[in-house]
Automatic annotation (TrEMBL):
The keyword DNA-binding applies. One of its GO terms (molecular function) is single-stranded DNA binding. GO terms for biological process: DNA replication. GO terms for cellular component: nucleoid. This is Single-stranded DNA-binding protein. SUPFAM superfamilies: Nucleic acid-binding proteins (SSF50249). Gene3D superfamilies: Nucleic acid-binding proteins (2.40.50.140).
Length: 86
């Protein structure tokens, strides 16, 4: 029987919940933190529309962190891909 390794991969599209916050490590590496909200609407067994919102905190590093800080603002729609970490 074949076994498969674990996979940690995330792709999502949502809107920024706050403006990105850019800071720098003591070594000069950019770190940018922001949040996104991903909306999901579905119909339950009774036929009612249900709306859910998933809130995710995002951290980017280096040049990507600087670009995020420069070009993205609260409310902007964005696609995210990466790994989930706690």
């Amino acid at each position: 029987m074949a076994t498969f390794g674990d996979l940690n991969s995330f792709i999502g599209i949502g809107r920024l919940t706050r403006d990105p916050e850019l800071r720098y490590t003591p070594g000069g590496t950019g770190v940018c933190k922001f949040g996104i909200a991903i909306n999901r609407t579905y119909r339950n067994q009774e036929g009612n529309n249900i709306e859910e919102v998933l809130f995710i905190n995002v951290v980017t590093w280096g040049k990507q962190a600087e670009n995020v800080s420069q070009f993205l603002k609260k409310g902007r729609r964005v696609a995210i891909s990466g790994e989930l970490r706690s």
